[in-house]
Amino acid sequence: MKILVIGAGGREHALAWKYAQSASCESVFIAPGNAGTAEVGENVALDVTDYAAVAAFVQDQDIDLVVIGPEQPLVDGMADYLVGQHITTLGPSQAAAQLEGSKDFSKAFMDKYKIPTAKYASFHTHELDKALDYVSQHPLPIVVKASGLAAGKGVLICESHGHAKDVVRDMLSGASFGEAGSTVVIEEFLQGIEISIFVLTDGKDYLLLPSAKDYKRIGEGDTGLNTGGMGAVSPVPFANDAFLEQVRTTIVEPTVNGIHAEGLDYKGFIFIGLMVVNGVPQVLEYNVRMGDPETEVVMPRLLGDFAALSLAAAEGRLAGETIEMDPRTCVTVMMVSGGYPGDYQKGIAISGIEQVDGSLVFHAGTKIHNGQLVTNGGRVIAVSSFGDNIEAAVSQSLQNVAHIEFDGRFYRRDIGRDLMNL
Ligand code: AMP
Ligand code: GLY
């Protein structure tokens, strides 16, 4: 089959890489892709917000499956458009993508289907006074979330009532997150350890993909500003069979059953962010796509024909399918531009990738300019490695990261360290 992957990051490079290796996959196209995806398939210079142009390309090239990587096109209804053109698509409908696009919607969904999550209340623009009263009564710390998509920046953990009130005011007035903040979710702070669960579903049946943990802060020891993700580890050592069974029965099954009961058309990935509080997993959030950089450790651990499984999910045929995983640990270390997640430059020359030995290089933000590989984003390159344990895998990645040079490059050396002695 021929597959078109929509997106341009490390997640899409890892997906395209996995599809390119799948026996059932003849060729992979990536739109728009990056310098790394061009090595595993063919980049297509499509404007991916022009759905008609994407559909025309799919029809011209006889593409069998479109896989939508990022959340924005899903929340904007790209899957609905393609499915309406009779194109087999892996990615939930716009209505189903509200599970990520509206925290107000996803919290109400979790309440309705009794899925464990933090206690909350939500307020709309015209309910500022009620929201401030609610904050006054709330124990500290208080978690305030913009309900809409905010590129991972819409969650604030407030240590004082004054701060929480300022955040609520700025969100509801539209000052801080525009329309995304016009509804706020105020919730209880959960203290625990985070883990991400990935599910492939056709809306009725599902498969659990490998679990992972990502490292969101820019600084070592989980300090400094939040980023898109500075590294990831899979599997997560405490996620043993008993834990995963608990996640399956208390969270994944009620979620998939709820999606089905609501009549939501959901063929795609569900990324469930969990906080494990005293051994009990609770949902922090749903994402309607794979994680980045989690995909850069999840894809390498999948054995078998993932293109065939993705097609089965998109065609509603997941029942009876199984998945096999490499038991080894995979770790990725993300190399980022100087200044990220604040301002950074693009177009800086990258060298040394050819010296990488024994690791996988996934491009997150790169392009070729005048024949030279250059940076083209805050997150630039993810270096993934296998090992018998986290220590071995991370040290392999760090050895190879050392070969890859670009001015101002930065990375964390402590990915997975918090999990080593659990
Ligand atoms: P979200 O986008 O909802 O996953 O939130 C982003 C991050 O904020 C999560 O990965 C957690 O680290 C943190 N977070 C979100 N909600 C809570 C909560 N109720 N308690 C503690 N931390 C939270
Ligand atoms: N790494 C977190 C995310 O993809 O949202």
List keywords for this structure.
binds adenosine monophosphate; D-amino Acid Aminotransferase, Chain A, domain 1; binds glycine; 5-stranded parallel beta sheet; Dna Ligase, domain 1; 24 strands; alpha+beta; Rossmann fold; 422 residues; 5-stranded antiparallel beta sheet
Summed up:
The chain folds into three domains: 2-93, Rossmann fold; 119-188, ATP-grasp fold, A domain (Dna Ligase, domain 1), CATH 3.30.1490.20; 193-419, D-amino Acid Aminotransferase, Chain A, domain 1, CATH 3.30.470.20.
Topology, element by element:
Blueprint: E1 2-7, H1 10-21, E2 27-32, H2 37-40, E3 42-43, H3 51-61, E4 65-68, H4 71-75, H5 78-84, E5 89-90, H6 98-101, H7 103-112, E6 120-124, H8 128-137, E7 142-146, E8 155-158, H9 161-172, E9 183-188, E10 193-201, E11 206-208, E12 213-214, E13 217-219, E14 223-226, E15 231-234, H10 241-261, E16 268-277, E17 280-287, H11 295-301, E18 302-303, H12 306-314, E19 324-325, E20 329-336, E21 360-363, E22 366-369, E23 372-375, E24 379-387, H13 390-401
Parallel strand pairs: 1-2, 1-4, 2-3, 4-5
Antiparallel strand pairs: 6-9, 7-8, 7-9, 10-11, 10-16, 12-15, 13-14, 15-20, 16-17, 18-19, 20-24, 21-24, 22-23
Residues 118, 143, 145, 155, 157, 187, 189-190, 194, 273, 284-285 line the site of adenosine monophosphate.
CATH hierarchy class name of the largest domain: Alpha Beta
Name every ligand kind in the structure: adenosine monophosphate, glycine
Broad structural category = alpha+beta
Please tell me what the overall shape is.
Answer: globular
Please identify, by name, the CATH architecture of the largest domain.
2-Layer Sandwich
The order of strands across the largest sheet is 3-2-1-4-5
- N- to C-terminal separation? 43 Å
User: DSSP strand (E) fraction?
Assistant: 25-35%
